[in-house]
Design brief:
Elements lengths: L2 E7 L3 E6 L4 E6 L2 E4 L4 E4 L3 H18 L6 E4 L4 E5 L2 E2 L2 E8 L2 H7 L6 E11 L8 E2 L1 H6 L5 H23 L3 E8 L1 E4 L2 E4 L8 E5 L9 H4 L5 H13 L11
Antiparallel strand pairs: 1-2, 2-3, 3-7, 4-5, 6-7, 8-13, 9-10, 9-12, 10-11, 12-15, 13-14
Helix pairs in contact: 1-6
The protein binds thymidine-5'-phosphate and aspartic acid (ASP).
Thymidine-5'-phosphate (TMP) binds next to helix 2, strand 12 and strand 15.
């Protein structure tokens, strides 16, 4: 595999072409943004941790039969993935009220939801990723009904896999965001699964172990991500490339 020219730079990742047209390389940056890029910082090693955490989650999901874009880890910041035609619909899965759901509906944070909630947002920073429903999705031809059905099925299956897996590591999976794309006529789970895109709470203390620490200026962001990785990998203190 050869890394070729730069294809696209997002807020947290850079995509490069490879010598194989069906594969691209994802490089995880240390950049952290919130509120559609209004709040910005560089958090040393965040990219390394998110590359490793995403690889861990994608491999776990593949073992459970989920079709993900992950192929293999290339370096401490890079993974090789299937090239997807991204569907510009973010799928949000919620188990416990937090963040924008609490704000929008007045449900106090930490309230356990009686049923898992699925939400959809249009992936468009300029419009601030507005929430949309199936009618908007079909009216804008963002995805077909059968594609939405598959995305919803996979999103709920991912939740069913990750909730008990994380519970066993003393982590509550509060909510998370997934992105999907098309590859060879199939719907494939893409993007990343990391504390940037999930809410993780420590089961005992309730302490936040995700990007809310950055959004709310709580400090200890990278330390929290590192602790999530340590619990997933079961080691004492995961060695992260670039550290001495
Ligand atoms: P929210 O409560 O702010 O709508 O976030 C719901 C979930 O989606 C949460 O786990 C964080 C994640 N998320 C992203 O991955 N990207 C985003 O741009 C936002 C706003 C949230
Ligand atoms: N991902 C969004 C941003 O970078 C918002 C967020 O995660 O809070 O601005």
């Amino acid at each position: 595999m050869q890394k070729k020219d730069f294809l696209y730079e997002g807020k947290a990742k850079i995509i490069y072409r490879t010598d194989d047209p069906v594969h691209v390389l994802v490089e995880f940056k240390d950049d952290a943004t919130a509120f559609d890029g209004v709040k910005k910082d560089r958090l040393e090693d965040k990219g390394v941790l998110n590359n490793r955490l995403s690889a861990h989650f994608f491999s776990l999901l593949e073992q459970h039969g989920i079709n993900t874009h992950y192929i293999k880890t290339i370096s401490d910041r890079e993974m090789l993935v299937k090239s997807l035609e991204i569907i510009p619909v973010e799928v949000i899965v919620r188990n416990i009220a937090a963040g924008s759901l609490s704000k929008r509906l007045g449900i106090p944070e930490k309230t356990e939801l009686k049923k898992t909630v699925l939400e959809f947002s249009l992936k468009d920073d300029e419009l601030h990723d507005p929430m949309i429903n199936h009618y908007h999705i079909y009216a804008m031809d963002l995805a077909k009904p059968e594609e939405m059905a598959e995305m919803e099925r996979v999103a709920l299956k991912v939740n069913e896999i990750l909730v008990p897996y994380l519970k066993d590591k003393n982590i509550v999976l509060v909510d998370f965001k997934l992105e999907f794309g098309r590859h060879n006529g199939e719907i494939v789970l893409g993007d990343e699964i990391s504390p940037d895109t999930c809410r993780f709470w420590d089961s005992s203390s309730g302490e936040k172990m995700d990007k809310d620490r950055f959004r709310r200026d709580m400090g200890g962001v990278v330390e929290a991500y590192r602790e999530v990785l340590r619990r997933l990998e079961g080691g004492e203190n995961p060695a992260v490339e670039g550290e001495s």
